[in-house]
From TrEMBL:
The keyword Nucleotide-binding does not apply. GO terms for molecular function: channel activity. The chain crosses the membrane at residues 28-51, 63-87, 107-128. Signal peptide: none annotated. The keyword Membrane applies. Belongs to the MIP/aquaporin (TC 1.A.8) family. Its main location: membrane. InterPro entries: Aquaporin-like, Aquaporin_transptr, MIP, MIP_CS. It comes from the Bacteria. Keywords: Membrane, Transmembrane, Transmembrane helix, Transport. This is Aquaporin. It is a multi-pass membrane protein.
């Protein structure tokens, strides 16, 4: 046997371990990218809605739509090459169902997206308070929904 053969045999296991470590690092990088991207989307988009409410419509629906469009564009360009830029559990599930994404990474992506969204909502709550009741739909009428005082004549 030549000395090159012995060296090659010794290096192979080390290369395999580093490739596993590389895959693990890439997986964690994707999870972090999904969390940060979802954070950015929720923070900017929902923040625009809350500021629009606090400013009594100064941003307008068009402005809110532009914020969502711009932030998703920035997040896709920033993290798309790392994680695929799903930023939404429904998108991740759709990719799994279409078999364009491995099932084994579904829970990790969902966890990262949930954590990013919750952190963004928490930051908005701390910064802006209870503006717009954090996006909840509130009844608009004179009385209870479905009551005679709530209905309007034709």
């Amino acid at each position: 046997m030549s000395s090159n053969t012995i060296i090659e045999r010794r290096q192979q296991p080390r290369l395999r371990r580093s490739s596993l470590r590389g895959r693990t690092e890439a997986t964690w990088a994707a999870y972090i990218a999904e969390g940060l991207g979802t954070f950015g989307l929720v923070f900017a988009g929902c923040g625009a809605i809350m500021i629009d409410t606090l400013s009594h419509g100064a941003i307008t629906h068009v402005g809110v739509g532009l914020v969502f469009g711009l932030i998703i564009t920035v997040m896709i360009y920033t993290f798309g090459h790392i994680s695929g830029a799903h930023f939404n559990p429904a998108v991740t599930l759709a990719f799994v169902v279409a078999r364009h994404f491995p099932v084994r990474r579904l829970i990790g992506y969902w966890s990262a997206q949930l954590l990013g969204a919750l952190l963004a909502a928490g930051c908005l709550r701390l910064l802006l308070g209870d503006a717009a009741a954090l996006g909840s739909t509130l009844p608009a009428g004179n009385g209870e929904p479905g009551s005679p005082s709530d209905s309007k004549p034709c």
